[in-house]
Design goal:
SLX1_endonuclease, 14 helices, two-stranded antiparallel ribbon, globular, 6-stranded mixed beta sheet, about 10% strand, 5'-flap endonuclease activity, binds zinc ion, Herpes Virus-1
């Protein structure tokens, strides 16, 4: 599927870094460095991460004879912004498949990982913003990297930058302004990402749009909760509530899809071919309308042709449509959402692959070891 491939295109800098570490591990270089226990632990962790990571076909280290696993988008992948409670001018950017576990690590409740946020008496941390809805882990890594390096990322035009130097732009308004810029970058815009603000102040800062960043439909992307301050574990309760709500909603959605498919044969309204997940072994990528009271089923590629905003054939960046229209209920569907859900339906209901969210619990970000710590 071209959409998935486009999302998976790796950011050169991250891949250069991964390749470098890969080489280092393959040639057993970490043995030389092993006098430093912290470095050795990091290297071992990285080697495990690389083995778990889905590399582009040409760069894959896996054996070619192994059957390829179906692509299933992660149920959740988020890039977050932390703010230190004792030092509110200090921020930290990271990414995770599990924001609850990650915040507990940052605040020292769980011992593994996140040693960078231990320092300088910054604990505890509040998770004040969470950008989510990424189609895969690599896309989240790219967003994380771009947010950390907004003074040089290719996703923000030089003329539009609000942070121009490595040491500049450290206020909340800058952090939030850069999210706005990234969400409007063609690459990330196509992913229909969502923002969760765990603080009214952060939400207001976003809406205020101090740097007058053009574009974007706020109502489509953003939601917020009022923060309940807590001295010990930051806003863990708020993040837990968010995760609970998110998981419940997804579960209900999958139950709805499963129920719809139980009826057996369905005719695709566009090509008139039958879709049958019960009596057939073929599980094409399909779309089931995610709006309430609508169960419209069709092939994903048939729906692709019904785009509301026909993508430009000459501009590669716009090959992916933003919106499509449900033929039955006439409501707009976000293409990125539909495409993502389609991989869940095919993987979990069709091929009975286990929920990918659980299999990704052990992954952590490698680039967080770098210079994303700011104060
Ligand atoms: Zn069709
Ligand atoms: Zn519909």
């Amino acid at each position: 599927m071209s959409a998935a491939r486009e999302f998976g295109k790796p950011d050169c800098k991250i891949w250069t870094k991964i390749k470098r570490v890969e080489r280092c591990i393959r040639s057993n270089d970490y043995e030389i460095e092993s006098k430093n226990p912290q470095f050795r632990t990091t290297q071992l962790k990285l080697s495990r991460k690389i083995q778990n990571m889905k590399l582009p076909r040409s760069q894959s280290m896996r054996s070619k004879t192994k059957p390829e696993k179906p692509h299933i988008a992660p149920k959740f992948y988020g890039v977050y912004l932390l703010r230190s409670i004792p030092k509110p001018g200090t921020f930290y950017i990271g990414s995770t498949p599990d924001p609850v576990r990650r915040l507990r690590q940052h605040n020292g409740e769980l011992t593994s990982g996140a040693y960078r946020t231990k320092r300088k008496g910054c604990r505890p941390w509040d998770m004040i913003m969470l950008v989510h809805g990424f189609p895969n882990k690599i896309a989240a890594l790219q967003f994380e990297h771009a947010w950390q390096h907004c003074y040089q990322t290719r996703h923000i035009d030089v003329s539009k930058r609000i942070t121009t130097t490595k040491t500049g732009g450290r206020s909340l308004a800058h952090k939030v302004g850069n999210v706005r810029l990234l969400l409007n970058a063609p690459f990330f815009k196509a992913m229909a990402l969502k923002i969760m603000c765990f603080d009214e102040v952060v939400y207001n800062t976003y809406v205020e749009n101090k740097f007058r960043v053009q574009g974007g439909d706020d109502s489509l992307f953003i939601e917020y909760v009022k923060m309940i301050p807590n001295k010990d574990d930051g806003n863990l309760k708020d993040v837990e509530d968010f995760k609970e709500k998110y998981t419940t909603r997804n579960k209900a959605l999958m139950e709805k899809f499963s129920k719809t498919l139980q009826h057996g044969e369905h005719e695709c309204p566009y090509c008139d071919e039958m879709i049958d997940y019960i009596n057939s072994d073929e599980f094409p990528y399909i779309s089931i309308c995610y709006h309430n009271d609508c169960e419209n089923i069709c092939h994903l590629m048939c729906l692709y042709k019904q785009t509301v905003d026909p993508p430009s054939r000459t501009n590669e960046k716009q090959l992916i449509p933003q919106k499509v229209k449900c033929q039955k209920c006439s409501r707009v569907l976000l293409w990125a959402e539909v495409a993502k859900i389609s991989t869940w339906i095919r993987g979990e209901i069709g091929l009975h692959e286990p929920d990918i969210m659980n299999s990704q619990q052990t992954t952590d970000m490698m680039i967080e070891e770098e210079d994303n710590f700011e104060d």
